């Protein structure tokens, strides 16, 4: 062997060769960035565009349809970034909640022993996942919500909530004096529940005695805040929307753009979550259920203690990527004018300032940050519930 | 002496409640009170959706005519779709040149069918022709400007034709790039590896819309001003990069599934890295992930609709803009149903084909 390796030319040596390839790669990359960099600087110079983030403190001077923080034309471009970001987070958060609920329901329904329900769930999944999301958003926005009646002929639920072409009007809770005590009690109750649960689990591990966790948790989390609420004399009133002239005043308004986006995102993503849930449940072998039943566990306990924890291991990674997709897909908002990050910042703000590089970079970093955070959290959770093989 | 002959009593038929239609109904629809409730709710749902929908789309619909006056009944007005069908399919491509588009798509249709149908011979030759010659032929057919074909600028391309062009070029180029990135990610060279990881994670972490914005706003700044890149080409570049990152992850999944022994055996035979990859590892890995590849293709096909946001006229964009025609106001539902069914049929048949492939290829693994 040593003879041949001596005869070997240096360019046939794997180590040198990989070093050589990598040097070439780095040189190519550096050349590429140098090419882009010089061109960009030259182009910016020619067009007289200044660089830097100074524009963020300039006055924006345009209105935004919906904002979670105080905003009007007199605020800065930095504020428009914040408004867009919060709107993106709002629609993503709500979308994740709804999509998860629908997805789990449909996924379980597809495995139902009721033939009709299983088929209906299958039709739902096959229908909505094969149609582009943008088309669904357009459909809900232009075809469904635009055909709603005018404010005077609103559809109403008990004269409290109203639905018309301008949006959905819901009563808004007005927090009276002392309501913060109720919120604090609730937070304390949740913290206490976590600690009691830990103690109960330890006690069960040590002594085998079970603790009636559900009742205690229910009393703490629901009962205690309610008690405080009534003890303070119900410090909560509702601002019910009223029709005045041609429009409603008061209450909370959910703009049709948000509704359309939310419906489309949840309905679409739920089909993929349903498939993840189905594959997760199918991945748990039937022998596990049989063994658990043979041990004498009740049907609900079999599901809760044996099937679902194992199914979750299959479901979690797929669920993660669906959540990421949902957050990224929320950027389609820009097509119907819901003021999300892309519409407000990469759209209007870019048009007004011309700072393409800074704005696109900021927008992309936000999505990268959200993506990495969600996948980081889900990976941590995944690791926590992963099968420990000995 | 008497002989007792005990005849076995004839077996009774199974109770009517457990066989046949009644048994099936009891078992599958009405097995418990809760299930009965679900079944009734399901039937009510079907009853309230299906008959009106079928009535609207078929029985009460108007099919023939050239103006909106032809739509007299309560149902769908398919006249709208029929009148604008040319535009929906070809965008603003000059009608006298439609034959070029049809030729190009028929040719690729024949080639792909040849590759997919198992019985036909000479797969290698046809495959090489598809990969190396077809793109050139298609380019000249679509764009023209040579061989006596008049030039058709890309801003005139649109409709289903544009959608298909975007999807197939995205797939065609992202495939080799994705394979290279996947190999890079699993390579032992630290710099090549980290560059692949950064590339993949970056493009997978951002929405396609921002990629398209970037390609339409920032790309012109990255190149010298004399070099103007066509708008369609810019969008294609964005889509290809985006798609390559997803393709890389699919291929990586396949590479991970190939046992290490395969590579060791190839090395023991004295094959170089590239030879062992191309002849031993990749064929096996790609075969494993064909369903995943089809899935990314389906996702790409649906995602091409997003190009309407940067002003390209794909199928959805053409239909969407047709609603603004004052002569045809109020037919958005018909338009959306038409586009949705085009996408649905394509995506559904692709997913069915991938399931068929999965079953067919799985046979080799069964022992």
Automatic annotation (TrEMBL), chain A:
ABC transmembrane type-1 domain: residues covered: 85-378
Keyword Methyltransferase: no
GO molecular function, one term: transmembrane transporter activity
Pfam families in UniProt: BPD_transp_1
One record GO biological process: amino acid transport
Predominant cellular place of this UniProt entry's protein: membrane
Highest rank taxon of the organism: Bacteria
Localisation per UniProt entry: Cell inner membrane; Cell membrane
Its membrane topology: Multi-pass membrane protein
GO cellular component: ATP-binding cassette (ABC) transporter complex
Transmembrane segments: 20-37, 49-69, 81-109, 121-143, 178-196, 216-238, 258-277, 359-381
Keywords annotated in UniProt: Amino-acid transport, Cell membrane, Membrane, Transmembrane, Transmembrane helix, Transport
Annotated family: Belongs to the binding-protein-dependent transport system permease family. HisMQ subfamily.
Protein name, as recorded: Amino acid ABC transporter membrane protein 1, PAAT family
Automatic annotation (TrEMBL), chain B:
UniProt keyword terms in alphabetical order: Cell membrane, Membrane, Transmembrane, Transmembrane helix, Transport
Parts of the chain that traverse the membrane: 34-54, 98-117, 124-142, 162-184, 205-223, 277-298, 305-323, 335-353
Protein location: Cell inner membrane; Cell membrane
InterPro entries: AA_ABC_transptr_permease_3TM, ArtM/GltK/GlnP/TcyL/YhdX-like, MetI-like, MetI-like_sf
GO cellular component annotations of the record: ATP-binding cassette (ABC) transporter complex
Lineage top rank: taxon: Bacteria
Stretches assigned to the ABC transmembrane type-1 domain: 160-349
GO molecular function, one term: transmembrane transporter activity
GO biological process, one term: amino acid transport
One Pfam family recorded for the sequence: BPD_transp_1
Keyword Transmembrane helix: yes
Gene3D superfamilies: MetI-like (1.10.3720.10)
PROSITE patterns (alphabetical): ABC_TM1 (PS50928)
Topology relative to the membrane: Multi-pass membrane protein
Family matches, as PANTHER family: INNER MEMBRANE AMINO-ACID ABC TRANSPORTER PERMEASE PROTEIN YHDY (PTHR30614:SF41), MEMBRANE COMPONENT OF AMINO ACID ABC TRANSPORTER (PTHR30614)
Family as reported in the entry's similarity comment: Belongs to the binding-protein-dependent transport system permease family. HisMQ subfamily.
The protein's name in its UniProt record: Amino acid ABC transporter membrane protein 2, PAAT family
Organism: Desulfocapsa sulfexigens (strain DSM 10523 / SB164P1)
């Amino acid at each position: 062997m040593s003879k041949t390796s001596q005869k070997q030319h240096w360019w046939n040596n794997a180590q040198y060769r990989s070093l050589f390839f990598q040097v070439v790669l780095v040189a190519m990359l550096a050349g590429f960035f140098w090419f882009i960099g010089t061109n960009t600087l030259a182009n910016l110079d020619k067009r007289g565009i200044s660089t830097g983030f100074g524009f963020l403190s300039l006055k924006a001077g345009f209105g935004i349809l919906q904002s979670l923080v105080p905003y009007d034309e007199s605020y800065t471009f930095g504020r428009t970034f914040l408004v867009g970001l919060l709107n993106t987070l709002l629609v993503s958060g709500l979308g994740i909640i709804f999509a998860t609920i629908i997805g789990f329901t449909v996924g379980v329904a597809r495995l139902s022993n009721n033939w009709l329900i299983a088929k209906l769930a299958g039709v739902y999944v096959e229908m909505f996942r094969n149609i582009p999301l943008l088309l669904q958003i357009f459909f809900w926005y232009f075809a469904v919500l635009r055909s709603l009646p005018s404010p005077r002929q609103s559809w109403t639920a008990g004269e409290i909530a109203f639905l018309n072409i301008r949006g959905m009007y819901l009563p808004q809770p007005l927090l009276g004096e002392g309501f913060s005590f109720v919120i604090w009690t609730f937070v304390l109750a949740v913290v206490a529940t976590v600690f009691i649960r830990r103690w109960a689990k330890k006690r069960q591990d040590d002594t085998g005695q079970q603790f009636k966790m559900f009742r205690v948790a229910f009393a703490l989390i629901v009962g205690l805040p309610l008690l405080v609420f009534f003890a303070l004399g119900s410090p909560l009133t509702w601002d019910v929307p009223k029709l005045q002239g041609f429009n409603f005043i008061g209450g909370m308004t959910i703009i049709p753009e948000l509704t359309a986006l939310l419906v489309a995102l949840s309905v679409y993503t739920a089909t993929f979550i349903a498939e993840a849930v189905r594959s997760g449940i199918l991945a748990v072998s039937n022998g596990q259920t049989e063994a658990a039943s043979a041990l004498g566990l009740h049907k609900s306990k079999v599901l809760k203690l044996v099937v679902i924890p194992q199914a979750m291991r299959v479901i979690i990674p797929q669920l993660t990527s669906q959540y990421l997709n949902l957050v990224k897909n929320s950027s389609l908002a820009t097509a119907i004018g819901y003021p999300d990050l892309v519409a407000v910042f990469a759209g209007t703000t870019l048009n007004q300032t011309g700072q393409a590089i800074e704005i696109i970079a900021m927008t992309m970093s936000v999505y990268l940050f959200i993506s990495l955070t969600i996948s980081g959290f889900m990976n941590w959770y995944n690791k926590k519930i992963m099968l420990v093989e000995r | 002496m008497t002989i007792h002959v005990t005849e076995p009593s004839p077996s009774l038929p199974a109770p009517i409640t457990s066989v046949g239609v009644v048994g099936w109904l009891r078992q599958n629809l009405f097995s418990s009170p809760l299930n009965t409730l679900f079944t009734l709710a399901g039937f009510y749902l079907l009853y309230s959706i299906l008959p009106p929908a079928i009535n609207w789309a078929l029985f009460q619909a108007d099919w023939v005519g050239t103006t909106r006056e032809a739509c007299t009944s309560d149902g769908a007005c398919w006249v709208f779709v029929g009148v604008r069908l040319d535009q929906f399919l070809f965008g603003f491509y000059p009608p006298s040149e439609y034959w070029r588009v049809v030729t190009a798509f028929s040719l690729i249709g024949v080639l792909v069918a040849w590759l997919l149908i198992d019985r036909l011979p000479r797969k290698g030759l046809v495959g090489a022709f598809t990969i190396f010659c077809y793109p050139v032929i298609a380019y000249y057919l679509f764009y023209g400007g040579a061989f006596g074909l008049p030039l058709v600028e890309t801003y005139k391309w649109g409709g289903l034709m544009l959608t298909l062009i975007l999807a197939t070029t995205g797939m065609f180029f992202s495939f080799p790039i994705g394979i290279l990135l996947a190999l890079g990610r699993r390579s032992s060279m630290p710099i090549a590896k980290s560059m692949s990881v950064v590339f993949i994670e970056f493009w997978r972490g951002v929405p396609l819309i921002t990629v398209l914005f970037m390609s339409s706003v920032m790309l012109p700044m990255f190149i010298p001003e004399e070099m103007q890149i066509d708008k369609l080409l810019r969008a294609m570049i964005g889509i290809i990069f985006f798609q390559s990152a997803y393709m890389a992850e699919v291929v990586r999944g396949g590479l991970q599934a190939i046992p290490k022994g395969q590579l060791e055996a190839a090395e023991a035979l004295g094959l170089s890295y590239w030879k062992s990859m191309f002849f031993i590892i990749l064929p096996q890995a790609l075969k494993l992930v064909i369903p995943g590849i089809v899935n990314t293709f389906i996702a790409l096909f649906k995602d091409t609709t997003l190009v309407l946001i940067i002003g390209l006229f794909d199928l959805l964009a053409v239909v969407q803009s047709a609603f603004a025609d004052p002569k045809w106001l109020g037919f958005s539902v018909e338009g959306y149903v038409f586009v949705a069914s085009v996408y649905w049929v394509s995506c559904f048949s692709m997913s069915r084909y991938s399931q068929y492939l999965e079953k067919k290829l799985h046979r080799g693994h069964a022992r």
